[in-house]
Amino acid sequence: YKYPQQGYYLHGINIKKPFIYDLSLSYGKDFITIHHEILKQLNKIEWKGIILLYGLPGTGKTYYIRYLINELQQKNLIYFPSDIIRILSSSEFLQILKPYSHSIIIVDDAENLSKDHPDKALNNLFNLNHLSHQPIIAAFNAYSPQTFSHYKSSSIIQYLFDKLDIINTRILLKTLGSQRDNETIKQPMTLGEIYTQITLDTKTQNENTIESRKKLKTPDEMIQLLAEQELSLSDKDNCTLS
């Protein structure tokens, strides 16, 4: 959708649903309750509340939002970069939203809504919610869940994304195929750090495979190596958590 007098455009994009092995393992057991509450409220036509997702970069906020978008396939969602919202006047913002009165608004890096006064970003977000009368999902790299005495508790959902504890970090790494020794994991890790580790492990495994194939002298040795790799992958795919 185009607004010639303003120079703003809205265009559709496809968001591929990201792979999340297990929500409770990736985000913590208590997150399952929050996830179901988010889905329940956003699927209500009459719910016009606000969802605040906090956490350091790499803890999986944006990754989860992409996952959530694919769980809400019967809804229109509009993504606004925070720097765009900051320069829009209230009337311009509402004009853009007018044809999409039943859409859900998504704002990433929402602390940037107030560039000079980050502490006012939350107030600006609530003002947008009040003016638009539409649900808002906002992700913050700063702040933490807090009490909003002037708002109904049923209209606000908050969650703090944090690093996984050492036990869940070890389990998730092992489940995703990491060869790293558990004893070398001595501190909590973010999802970003975990997936970076998996990428490094995969790269190392691929390099080792190439080197192994260079050393093979007969077709029988090559067939044996491929068979062992196939068995290893099969075991990995069938692994379960107790």
Briefly note the structural class of the backbone: alpha/beta
Give a count of the beta strands, DSSP E runs of length 2 or more: 7
The radius of gyration over CA amounts to: 23 Å
The termini sit apart by 50 Å
Number of helices: 9
Low-confidence segments: 1-5, 229-242
Please tell me the total number of domains: 2
Major sheet summary line: 5 strands, parallel
Shape: elongated
Please give the order of strands in the largest beta sheet: 4-5-6-3-7
Full CATH superfamily name of the largest domain: P-loop containing nucleotide triphosphate hydrolases
**Could you please say which CATH topology of the largest domain applies here?**
Rossmann fold
Using brief descriptors, characterize the structure shown.
Rossmann fold, two-stranded antiparallel sheet, disordered N terminus, 242 residues, elongated, alpha/beta, 7 strands, 5-stranded parallel sheet
